[in-house]
Amino acid sequence: MVQVGLTHFLVISAILFSLGIFGIVTRKNAVMVLMGLELILNSANINFVAFSRYGNFGLNGQVVALFVIVLAAAEAAIALAIVLNIYKTFATVNVDEIDKLKE
Amino acid sequence: MEFNTIYNNLFYLVPEIAVSAFLLLVVLADLILGNNKKLLPYLSIAGMLVAGFCVMNQMTFSGAVFSPSGQSKSFGMVTVDSFGAFFKLLVVISTILVVFFSFSSEEIKKSTRRQGEYYTLILGMVLGMFLMISATDLILIYLSLELMSLSSYVLTGFTKLKDRNSEAALKYLIYGAVSSGLMLFGISIVYGLTGSTNLYVINTLLQSPQINMLALGIAGILIFAGIGYKISAAPFHFWTPDVYEGAPITITAFLSVASKAAGFALLARFIKVTFVSSVAPSGHWLLIPVFPWKELLIVISILTMTLGNFTALWQTNLKRMLAYSSIAHAGYLLLSVAVLSNQGLVAMLVYFAIYAFMNLGAFFIVMIIANKIGSEDLEDYKGLGYSMPFLGVTFGMFLVSLTGLPPSAGFIGKLYLFIALVDANMITVAVIALLNTVVALYYYIRVLKEMFLSKPTGEPVSLRLSPLSLILILVMLAPVVIFGVYFTPVVEFAKSCITILGM
């Protein structure tokens, strides 16, 4: 039986972080890009909680994770409102087609 | 922490409390007054005046707020010092000016019904900036950065008059959220390495050698991504031209001055508090040898100013051109941080005090002209110097000052920057910055050439300035002209404002 330790959590968070970056770079749909963002925030959350649990740093990290969850919700609300607005004006949420501002 | 300690600490937070109170007042007034929105801007200005008054009181003392119990006095979450007070004052002044801009902006007038939101969000941004300027805890840094960003995303797409508004908001949102996500990941690594999010505690821990340098380096770069995005430094600047072009001009002006000021204050404080072990008697900061901040900042600043200046050369939209010019200015300002000395800090404060007025002035005139002719394209500026002589001449003065030619105030800002660079033996960097200024001359003067040397196409437009606009232009022009010849007060003021509470 493998003991689950700090490394496992860090590896998971690193994978989530990379997946988030990958999603943001490759996805064309604005909503999918936003989901990539959530992955990045959650990977940081896992880091905070894992460090605070295994590093004996007290409860600081857990509290930070709570803050980040609240903030991610606020960000998602604003982001979806903006995407909705984009859909109303452009009739698409494909970020590649929204390029009226160019040099 | 006892109730008494909290109560005593609140005394340091009076400006932030004032801003929050007026934010709530604006929301309430918006609800109670119904369709009469005339009062709201005055309420915001009153809030800013009160906050400005409280900030003035902070000029003379320093202290830490919400220090954890059992620790010494300087381990707080928020730090109040004269450096922070200077930047808060700058934010207050630019907010007041931007609220006055909004009076005469056609874009804002067309959305009268939602003015309550507009001023609420502006005050929200101000609150975020205040906290950002004085935060000394990584979590508070992240939260205040987000508070400011979230308000500014909405403000960017506020008017919804053209397609470009919502597009700018989307681009700002995606770039902003990604870089603040990167920053959060960096913060989590720093937390794992040191077990604390407090900058002072981290500083003490970094001085012991058993830190994993590679992990700290990655974390440093990730955190810099978050701050670099706010100040539009080179690899993170892609949003700047699009957002500046797409946002309402009042917000563009606000973003280019106030949010940049907050970002630079944050960067300077972050580096000074976290990575500097002591200050030499000559005023140079001694870095803890864990992360090469100096080299990183020099490379990024040169990249930023070169990219900004050269791309500005072929811009045809004035807002876009000013966006690239503000990227270039961010490059110069980054150099003043890269010097890593008290002298560099003075140069930064002087530069910012002047930059705020000249950049706001330039944007205001672009706005007045756009109100009249409905366009910001350089093509449409042909011959405007003859049909609007006053605006043409004042715009010229702002542009000359942005270039940094004597006898304008912009020259003094650059002069102090170069003195600091030469003093720190960074001659090569100073020469590169100087050459960049020459490039900048071309695109600023090109606007003047279009305005004064080209034949007007179409009918000449005449414009009668409202008294308010006239006063605003003169208010912004006065420092640009006066500080150019009589700059002792601003320099002395900056020299008295370089206390960053730290080692």
Describe the structure.
The complex is a heterodimer of chains A (about 100) and B (about 500). The model of chain A has no long low-confidence stretch (mean pLDDT about 90). Chain A contains three helices and no strands. In chain A, helix 1 (about 5-25) runs antiparallel to helix 2 (about 30-55) and helix 2 (about 30-55) runs antiparallel to helix 3 (about 60-90). With about 100 residues, chain A is mainly alpha-helical. Chain B is mainly α. In chain B, the strands form two sheets. In chain B, strands 1-2 form a two-stranded antiparallel ribbon. In chain B, strands 3-4 form a two-stranded antiparallel sheet. In chain B, helix 4 packs antiparallel against helix 6 (about 115-135).
Q: Which features characterize this protein?
A:
heterodimer, A: 103 residues, mainly alpha, Helix Hairpins, B: 503 residues, two-stranded antiparallel sheet, two-stranded antiparallel ribbon, 21 helices, 4 strands, globular
Q: What share of residues of chain B is helical?
A: over 70%
Category by helix and strand content of chain B: mainly alpha
Q: Strand order, biggest sheet of chain B?
A: 1-2
Biggest interface reads: A-B, 46 and 40 residues
